Fold this sequence. Notes:
Elements: H1 3-12, H2 21-31, E1 35-36, E2 42-46, E3 53-59, E4 64-72, E5 75-81, E6 92-98, E7 101-107, E8 131-132, E9 146-149, E10 154-156, E11 159-162, H3 165-180, E12 189-195, H4 203-212, E13 216-224, E14 241-244, H5 250-262, E15 268-271, H6 280-284, E16 291-299, E17 307-309, H7 311-327
Parallel strand pairs: 3-12, 3-13, 13-16, 14-15
Antiparallel strand pairs: 1-2, 2-12, 4-5, 4-9, 5-8, 6-7, 6-9, 7-8, 10-11, 11-17, 14-16
Helix pairs in contact: 1-3, 3-7, 5-7
Amino acid sequence: MKTSELLMELSKIDGPSGMEDRVLERIEGIVGKGFRTKLGGLVHEIKGGGRSRIGVFAHADEVSLMVSKSAGDGFFYLETVGGVDPKILPASRVKVYTRSGVVKGVIGIMAPHITPPEKKGKVQGYDDLLLDASMSDWKKIRVGDRVILDVKPCEMNGKVCGKALDNRAGCTSLILASEKLKKFLLRNDVFFVFSSMEEVGGPGAKSVAHQLKLDYAIVVDVTFAEDTGVSQRMEMGKGPAIGVGPFIDRDFVELAMDVAKENNIPYQIEPLPGRTGTDADSIRRAWVGIRTLLLSIPLLHMHTPVEVVDPKDVEETARLIAHLVAAV
Length: 328
């Protein structure tokens, strides 16, 4: 399967935080049988010489919405699960995961003809947005049900566009790296961890890092490809970004750069002066302290249904993971 096809396949699968099972079942079907963690993640182990224990992490969950209150007659209020900006939601098709199956709906918006003057041209917040399931079997919907935007991924000019590429791009790089490692004679035991609930604080990664008593951890996530105007832009098509900052092990960073140069793997340096906003923050503090590295795949339009990644960056991230694991 081409990398772009694998990205799109994983993007299609719905896996909101705490409900990652569908994603993990597909990943397990590709990489082989693993074991499930108590907090809903998947661990795939590749045994080596046992010198050290290395965890390679990518979170499998995606941002979503939750039904918070009924507004009557098939209309419902919503809250965010993870960082979802309300301005992306109006006029979207959605799927509601109820206890009795999936119910289709839309997030409507008042027609401009009847919008009050004080609200015209303004971004509406969650108090003004309603899930409209009135044309479906809306009586199945209950408070607490999860809501996912109903979109299909696509490939455009070599890039992949879709929902949940944060962090199915990272999951894809782990899948590719696990395949590449079959060609290596490993001195270390490697655990590929497809973790849960990163978008709501990351308890899935921290708990399994402690459980596995890791010596090293490589965390793979995405980063902003947009020009933020504050720090150096991470560009698509130029390889993974190696994070540098107080939460990242300095020696591990130097090793990653040396391995990348030795194997002609393009990479970028991402300055992270404080918390990284990824599972690396909690993993670094797990167990007795774990030597942690962060590799990030450049991505456009994060936490929207039109996230964009370059499959080449995913592939180069996988190459770096494989060679780095072999070099530790």
